[in-house]
Structure formats: C-alpha cells, structure tokens
Recover the amino acids of this structure.
C-alpha cells in the first residue's frame, strides 16, 4: 500500500482536473471551486502522509524508450513537495473570494490542478525521461494562465509575456532532453538513483561537461539564471496573482531542484569544471537583480527582479558543491518559495484594491489606510532581505558559508571573491527593500486614495490564507534544524558522503 | 527458369481487395441514380474495412511471393514481401484511408465532385500504397509509387470548374513527373552497376563492391529524388502548400498523411533493404535535407494565416523530423537497422496527429470557406469537444504534454542522432521544435480566446461521418499518449 | 557496340530534358522534356541489360514498365493541362499564380479551398 502513495499523490489533482473537464458545463461551473478545494486539500493530506510513509514506486511504462514510472521521495524533495501542495491549496482558497476578473473559474481551477500534477511529478520523478515529461507538463497550463487571466499592463501585452516564457523554457528543455539522451547513450539507463550511485561512470570527463552544460542550460532558464532571465519580469508581472505565486513559489524551484538532483550527481566531473562559471553567473544575478530592483517603478516587477537575486543565492550555494552550500541552496529554495509566494499574494491584493501596481501612483501611507496589509508587506519585505530570525536568513548565510569553504577541487580565492560580491548584493537588497518600505508603507496617504472608500484592509479569508505562510517563515527562521535535519542526510548521500 | 511462379494470394489479399473494390466502385457508379452516388463512397469505405480484415491472417511469419529462383551468387529473391514493416504500414495506410473516406462523405454530398470517380481514384491510390509497402524490387517500387501518385493528380483536379483546383493539380503533376524521371535515371544507373533489380541482390552487390563507383553514387543519390518529392522534402517541397490549398480538404489530408506515409515506407525500404551498404553516401545527404526541410517548413509556417496552408508547411517540417533518423545512419548497415524503428514510430504518430488536425479543419472548412486561423477563434466555448480534438492534435504535433504521443515520438527521433553521434542534427531539430511550438500554440490559443467583437460565435452541426473521423483520431491519439508501445515498438 | 555510347546519348538526352524542364514556360513543352528524360532512362536500361547479359532480362522488362508509366503520365498530364486551359485560357506556367501567397493579401489567406 505504501508504494501506491506516490502515484496517488499525482492521481488526486489529475482526477480533479479530469472531473472538471468531463462534467457537464453548468455543474462543473458551480462545483469548480469546491472540487478544487477538495482536490488540493486531499493532495496536501496525501503529501504529508507520503513524506512519512511512502516507499518508492517503480512500474514500466514505455519499455522501448527505457521509460519507467519511478517515483520516490527523499530529504531533498520532501520540503518541495510539501511546499507545492501547500501553496496550491492556498491559491485555490484565495480564489474562493478573489475571483479573477476574466471569470471562467472552472478553467482556471482545472489548469491549476494540472499545474500541480506537473510540479509534484517533477519533484517525485526518479527517472530522467519521466522528469522531463513532468517538466514539460507545466508549460502549457502556465501559458494559458498568463495569456488568458493575466493583465495587459506589460509592454507587448500578456500574450507576448506568455510566449516569451514558453519559448525560452522550451528551448532550455529541448537542450536538456539532448543531455538526457546523451546520458542514456553513454550509460544505458535513465534511472536517477543508479546514475547517482555510479557517480558519472561510463562518461568521460568531456562528455560529463557536455552533459552538465546541456542539462544545466535547461535548468538555468527555469531558475532563472542571469543572462537567461529575461522572460521572468514580464511573465511575473503579467500573470494573475495565483499565477505569480505558483510561478515564483514553485516553478522556479524546479530548475534548481533539477541541478541538485540530476546535474550535479550524474555528471560530477562536469559539475566541477562548470561550477566556477555557475557561481560567477549566480553572483552577477544577485547584483544585477538588486540593481534592477533599485530602479523599478512597478511593484510586481520589483518583486520579480528580487526573485532573480534570490535564485542567484541558490545557484551560488549549488556552485560550491559542498554539503553546507547545497543545504543552504535548498533552504533558500524553500524560504524563497514561502516568502515570494507571500509577497506576490500581498502585491496582488494591493493591485486588486488600487487597480495599479505602480509605486509612484500608490504613493505612501499603506500603514495608514490598510494597517494589516501594510504590516504584512513590511514583514515579507524584511523576510526577503534576510533578517535573522526569519527563514530567508539561513538560506543566505549557509550559502555564503559554503562559498567561504568550497569543495576541494575548486579555487578558494575565486569563491571568496564571489562571496564578497554576494555580500555586496545583500547590502543592495537591503537598500531596495528598505527603500520600498519607506516609499510604499510609510508616509502620508496620497490624496487620491484618501477619497477612495472602497479600499478594504485584508479580509479574514485573506488573513487565513497568509497566516500559515507567515507562521512557517517565522518557524523556519527560528528553528532551522527542522529543515536541515531532513535535507542534510540526503545531500550528503548525493555528494557521495 | 521454372515454369510458373507460385503466387501467395493471402499475402496479396489486402492489395487485391482494395483494387477489386476500386473497379467495383467504378462499375457500381454506372448503375447508381444521380442523387445516390454517395453510395459508391460507402462501398469504398466498406472495401477498405474488409482489406483491413484481410491483414489479420498475415500477422506472424513473413510471407513472400513473386519470387525468382536462386543463382549461383544470390539466394531466392522475392518482389512482394509481407514482413513486420509491411504490415505496420499497410495498417496505417488502410486506416488512414478509412478516415479520409469518412471525411470525404460530406464533401461529396455538398459539392459537384463526382462520387464514383472520386472513390475509384482514392481506392486506386490506396491499392498502390498497400503494394508499395510490400515491394522489394525496384520495378514494383516504381510502379507502386506511380499508382499512388497518378490518381492523386486526378483527385486534386476533380473540381473541374474550379481554376484553383486545376492549377494545384498541374503543379503537383509537373513536380511529380520530373522527380520520377530523375529517380528512374538514378535507378537505371544502380541497375547497371549492380546488375540486379531485387533490393536484397542490390544490397549484396553493393556490399561486395570495394570502393565507391561514381556511377553508383550518382545513382543512389538521384534515386532519393522521387521519394523526396513524395514526402515533400526540400527542394521538392514547394508544391505542397499550393496543392493542399487548391485541393478539397480531405484530399489534402490524404496527401499529407497516407501519400506521405507511402513515400516514407518506399524510402525506408529502398534505403534500408537496398542501399544499406552505401549508408555513408546517402545518410549525410539525407541529414542535410532533413535539417533544411524542417527549418524551411517551420519558418514558413510562422507567417501563415490560413489553416490549410499552415498545416501544409507544418507537414513539411514534420517530414524533416521523420527524415532525421535516416540521416543519422552514418555508420554503415548496422546503424541503419538501429534507426529505422524511430522513423517508423514517428510516421505512425504523425499520421494519427495530422489526421486529427485535418479532421477538424475539414469540419470548420465546410462552414467557413475561407478557413483562416481567425475562423477558429472562440471555438473552445461553443464546440468544446471539437476544439479539444484540435488542441490535442496541435499539442501532439508540437510535442508537449498533454500530447504525449508527439512527445514520445520526438524523444524516439532525438535518440537516433544522439546515439549515432550526429550531434549537429539533434541541435538543429531541438531549435526547430521550439520554433514549431510558436505557431501551434498561436492556433491553440485562438481556439480558447474570446470571439472577436461582433463576430458570429462558431457553432456547427457535425455530421456523423465527420464526428466519427474526429472521434477515431482523437481516441487513437489519447490512447497512444497513455500507451505508446504500439507505436514505438511497432517493428517488434 | 561499347557500353559507353548509349550511356552518353542517354545522359545527353537527360540533360536536354532537364534543361527543358527548367527553362520552358509552356506546360506542354515541359511535358515533352519530361518524356525526353524518361526515354533517356529507357535507353540506359536497355543498354545495361544487354551489357550485363541479364538472365531475367530485368532491364528490358523495366523499360516496358517505364514506357507504360510514361504513357499514363502523359494521358493524365494532358488532361490536366486541358483543364487548366479551359479554366484559365493559358498554359503558361508563370501566369498561374492564383494559389500563391499574395503580398497584397494581408491575411495571407488568399482564396482557400472548401
């Protein structure tokens, strides 16, 4: 029974999606949200159960391709699976009260459920080709979410933002597929566990570099790594609130998860050669993200660029190739998922109320007119910049610690430089977030908002959605052992002890 | 030489049934009253189904017929061989033809196309395709290829009072005869240098020769021309968009799926059974052609606003993908056998996906003669099942979930150049897949977009034959997406 | 007669035919050029058959088939040319442009078929 838990985890949201597709129009429209709620709540329950009780699942699907349905959970994927199920549930709950302007809730819920299948599948897959299939599953639903429910304030419109997102990601995925097939051609298997255990046997050093580059390119576009990040700001800004939450909270994690789970263990020699470059790009991303944030005039776009910076930290942690660094990367992953998710929820709420997300138009005084929302925004901003005591701190600290003492084959002086520049990026991050708080939350309310009587503060439902996230951010900030105990053993096994 | 050849009629049954049905339909047409000519088409469809049934006894062993006795150099060689490859393609051709006939029923009812002649021509072409799959000597190959092509010219021209139809038919005809002539010249050179017309004897003669005779190289290269035209590969591709636009849409569907599959099986048979030892000569040429074909097809499709033209350019690009495994067979006869299953798998998957797309396009074309992409806007709200069928087919063609059939087919095709070491071809194909996504996605997005202001929302009355065609193709695509073994392991 | 002579003549005929196909504007003249190419093939096949002393006479048999195919093609081709001429009053290939993607047609749709 316990080995059926993981297929069940994927089957529940899929069943919800199919139910919405198959039920006749009127019934489906009325029951869309209840079905969505039940499906996501059930998924969360099964996810919790699986984290503790699931055993790996292994079945044959397409023998001629060598594709097997191999699903499994370990310390690296546990937190991500829980994060995914949790955030998706929150998104559906959020949609109960905050209906999208474009309507068609049934289609939106169906697409979100399909997204959930893809996201969970990516974290559960232990077969390279299966991983690729699930990696691709999220593309079309996300495209539709951005293109049909997004807003047009982005230059070029929401369809163009969606197109950029999908074309970039697919190009990365196509290259990733070539890498995967190259691994199979040289080693004869798609099995991730077997490949991790063999540690790159069967592939010469040059081939490993090629494999790491191919796989890494696909993951780098998803992460996103500078300079392949250009799809992110438009996509995040154009997407509806729950789209941005899922994009920032989960989709970005798929790229770094892939690097940790697949690229580094399967091609270790390749990783050693490419890691310094990865670190350099990561650090450029951190600084670039921070600098870009300083000049942003749109709130959503600012949060989007801050994601580029945060993922830079994750990449730096991976580039150190040490347990400390990778633990830090995983921590930063989860923290970013929670914090950015919260940020996008809040910014989405602000945008819905003011009908603008331009910082100039919003003016200051958010504390004044909407104290709860303002307070939460400040909390999220402060968590994002890495205040000790909140989740973001540990990710950044462990990453920098990892860079201080990288893996034996890597040039320490080089990494110390990277660490220093990353520290500079940290300072810049603080600058823009504090500046944001000053401009938006503090000060006087602009006259145009003083007249507006329809600006409600956070509703009880919204608070109910956000409170668990806030709680988790605090818990993970004060008690890092909770997460590290789960990830550390898995990371050590991945890196070979 | 012995007296008469032994003829295995069971092996010949599918081709015979189709041919007899064709003639029968033509005769039946004489006796049908003017308003009831469509009965001829129904009879034709029935004959195709019977032909499918006659394939059942052939599963299992290889059957050979029309054999010539052994010489002191060569073993017995047969002209008509029914092995696994043959059976797979015969099923594809017959099933595809059934779907095309279903789509044609309403076209025949609504337009002035004579039903009896149409059915006769279609069935004749199918008979040629069925024979082509089983041909193992160059005479049979050429004759079968012509039997597939000649009725197709007439089919395209059958709307006699439409000048676009005749222009399309003329373009198709001229490219076809020229490429046939070039191919025949190449085959004559091959015959001259190897001394045999049976493919297995040609292969052993080529293997025995040391060095590469210029005449043979020229012959092998020129022989590709005829099939290059049939599968619409660069530089023989430019007839396709014009012909598909000018012909009735079911005929375009036939050309793009069944006729193309026939071309591919002929090419596969010729290259793998006949020219295997010369793989290092033809494989690089095929690789370059594949790369050019997919790129030209995808780039041209980006600009298309007409549904049929877009599908035409998209089929050209898909032909490029199907040629990739054959272009990867760079290391001699062993690698040729390794890459053939990939091409076969993709041709099968493509047939299902493309027929699915064409079914919906035919349906929309009946109600919106212009058949522009704009005419599909909003179809998702008024005809959800039809729109889903088209969207699923487009997802398969693009190679993204939920179109898993297309995804697996592309993975299989990608494996060929990666495993054989032809990296540049894999990279070109990867880039092309991304370019291709753009126009498939734009079309799928139009399906689910809001209808334009003031436009009539598209709502159609779907006849049972159109519905059945769409249902069959959608069902096959979904089934094969979940259980792709039948397609991917077809040659086992 | 040495093999080379018929082969040379065939190659010459083929080239003339190919030239005709590429250069000629009239559909019927293109057809004639294709016939020239096909006859070059026939010459090739018969020459090779005699030179190889083929026991199956496959070259000559092939030639018979090619002649038949050529006849069928010509029959069908002339019928199509006649149809075009009846609909368009011309058989000049460069004047047949109705199906092309017109730059003046902004939708790129042209006149699609039903």
């Amino acid at each position: 029974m316990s080995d059926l838990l993981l297929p069940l985890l994927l089957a529940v949201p899929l069943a919800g999606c199919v139910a919405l597709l198959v039920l006749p129009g009127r019934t489906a429209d009325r029951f869309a949200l209840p079905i969505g709620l039940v499906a996501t709540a059930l998924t969360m329950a099964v996810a919790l159960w699986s984290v503790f009780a699931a055993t790996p699942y292994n079945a044959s699907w397409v023998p001629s391709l060598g594709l097997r349905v191999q699903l499994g959970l370990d310390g690296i994927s546990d937190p991500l699976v829980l994060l995914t199920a949790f955030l998706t549930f929150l998104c559906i709950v959020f949609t109960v009260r905050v209906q999208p302007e474009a309507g068609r809730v049934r289609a939106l819920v169906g697409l979100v459920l399909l997204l959930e299948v893809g996201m969970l599948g990516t974290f559960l897959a232990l077969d390279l080709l299966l991983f690729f299939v699930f990696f691709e599953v999220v593309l079309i639903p996300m495209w539709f979410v951005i293109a049909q429910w997004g807003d047009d304030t982005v230059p070029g419109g929401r369809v163009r933002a969606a197109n950029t997102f999908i074309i970039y990601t697919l190009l990365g995925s196509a290259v990733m597929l070539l890498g995967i097939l190259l691994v199979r051609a040289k080693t004869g298997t798609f099995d991730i566990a077997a490949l991790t255990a063999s540690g790159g046997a069967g592939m010469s050093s040059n081939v490993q570099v090629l494999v790491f580059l191919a796989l890494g390119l696909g993951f780098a576009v998803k992460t996103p790594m500078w300079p392949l990040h250009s799809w992110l700001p438009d996509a995040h800004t154009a997407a509806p609130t729950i789209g941005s939450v899922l994009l920032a909270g989960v989709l970005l994690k798929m790229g770094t998860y892939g690097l940790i789970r697949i690229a580094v263990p399967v091609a270790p020699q390749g990783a050693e050669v490419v890691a310094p470059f990865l670190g350099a790009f990561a650090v450029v991303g951190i600084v670039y993200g921070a600098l870009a944030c300083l000049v942003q005039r749109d709130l959503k776009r600012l949060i989007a660029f801050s994601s580029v910076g945060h993922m830079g930290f994750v990449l730096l942690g991976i580039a150190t190739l040490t347990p400390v660094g990778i633990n830090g990367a995983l921590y930063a992953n989860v923290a970013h998922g929670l914090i950015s998710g919260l940020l996008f929820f809040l910014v989405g709420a602000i945008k819905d109320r003011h009908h603008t997300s331009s910082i100039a138009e919003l003016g200051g005084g958010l504390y004044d007119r909407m104290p709860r929302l303002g307070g939460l925004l400040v909390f999220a901003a402060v968590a994002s910049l890495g205040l000790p005591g909140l989740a973001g701190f540990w990710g950044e600290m462990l990453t920098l610690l990892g860079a201080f003492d990288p893996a034996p084959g890597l040039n320490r002086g080089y990494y110390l430089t990277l660490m220093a520049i990353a520290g500079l990026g940290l300072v810049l991050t603080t600058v823009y977030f504090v500046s944001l708080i000053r401009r938006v939350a503090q000060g006087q309310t602009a006259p145009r908002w003083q007249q507006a009587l329809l600006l409600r503060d956070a509703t009880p439902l919204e608070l109910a959605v956000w409170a668990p996230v806030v709680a988790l951010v605090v818990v993970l900030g004060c008690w890092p052992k909770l997460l590290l105990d789960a990830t550390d053993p898995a990371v050590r096994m991945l890196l070979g002890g | 030489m012995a007296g008469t050849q032994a003829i295995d009629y069971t092996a010949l049954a599918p081709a015979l049934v189709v041919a007899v049905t064709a003639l029968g339909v033509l005769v039946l047409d004489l006796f049908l009253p003017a308003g009831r000519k469509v009965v001829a088409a129904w009879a034709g469809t029935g004959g195709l189904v019977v032909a499918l049934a006659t394939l059942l006894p052939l599963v299992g062993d290889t059957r050979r017929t029309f054999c010539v006795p052994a010489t002191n150099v060569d073993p017995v060689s047969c002209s008509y061989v029914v092995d696994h490859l043959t059976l797979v393609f015969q099923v594809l051709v017959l099933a595809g033809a059934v779907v095309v006939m279903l789509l044609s029923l309403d076209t025949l009812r609504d337009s002035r196309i004579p039903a009896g002649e149409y059915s006769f021509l279609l069935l004749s072409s199918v008979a040629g395709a069925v024979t082509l799959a089983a041909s193992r000597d160059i005479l049979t190959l050429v004759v079968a290829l012509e039997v597939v092509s000649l009725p197709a010219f007439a089919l395209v021209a059958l709307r006699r009072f439409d000048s676009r139809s005749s222009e399309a038919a003329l373009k198709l005809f001229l490219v076809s005869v020229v490429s046939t002539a070039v191919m025949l010249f190449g085959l004559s050179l091959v015959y001259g240098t190897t001394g045999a017309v049976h493919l297995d004897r040609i292969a052993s003669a080529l293997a025995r020769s040391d060095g590469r005779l210029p005449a043979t190289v020229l012959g092998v290269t020129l022989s590709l021309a005829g099939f290059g035209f049939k599968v619409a590969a660069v530089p023989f591709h430019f007839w396709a968009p014009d012909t598909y636009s000018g012909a009735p849409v079911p005929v375009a569907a036939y050309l793009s799926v069944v006729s193309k599959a026939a071309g591919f099986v002929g090419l596969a048979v010729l290259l793998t059974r006949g020219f295997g030892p010369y793989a290092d000569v033809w494989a690089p040429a095929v690789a370059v052609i594949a790369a050019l074909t997919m790129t030209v097809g995808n780039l041209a499709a980006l600009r298309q606003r007409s549904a049929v033209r877009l599908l035409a350019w998209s089929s050209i690009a898909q032909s490029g993908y199907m040629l990739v495994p054959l272009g990867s067979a760079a290391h001699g006869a062993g690698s040729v056998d390794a890459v053939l299953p990939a091409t076969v798998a993709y041709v099968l998957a493509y047939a299902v996906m493309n027929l699915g797309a064409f079914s919906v396009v035919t349906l929309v074309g009946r109600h919106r003669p212009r058949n522009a992409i704009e005419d599909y806007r909003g179809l998702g709200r008024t005809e959800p099942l039809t729109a889903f069928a088209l969207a699923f087919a487009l997802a398969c063609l693009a190679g993204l979930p939920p179109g898993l059939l297309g995804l697996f087919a592309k993975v299989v095709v990608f494996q060929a150049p990666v495993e054989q070491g032809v990296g540049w071809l894999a990279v070109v194909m990867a880039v092309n897949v991304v370019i291709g996504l753009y126009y498939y996605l734009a079309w799928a997005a139009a399906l689910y977009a809001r209808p334009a202001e003031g436009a009539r929302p598209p709502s159609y009355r779907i006849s049972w034959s159109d519905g059945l065609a769409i249902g069959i193709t959608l069902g096959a695509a979904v089934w094969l997406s979940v259980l792709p073994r039948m397609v991917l392991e077809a040659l086992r | 007669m040495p093999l080379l002579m018929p082969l040379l003549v065939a190659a010459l005929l083929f080239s003339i035919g190919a030239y005709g196909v590429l250069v000629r504007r009239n559909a019927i003249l293109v057809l004639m050029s294709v016939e020239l190419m096909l006859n070059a093939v026939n010459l090739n096949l018969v020459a090779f058959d005699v030179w190889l002393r083929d026991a199956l006479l496959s070259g000559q048999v092939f030639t018979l088939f090619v002649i038949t195919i050529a006849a069928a093609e010509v029959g069908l081709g002339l019928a199509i040319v006649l149809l075009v001429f009846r609909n368009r009053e011309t058989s000049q290939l460069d004047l047949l442009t109705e199906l092309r993607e017109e730059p003046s047609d902004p939708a790129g749709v042209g006149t699609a078929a039903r």
About this structure: The radius of gyration of chain B is 22 Å.
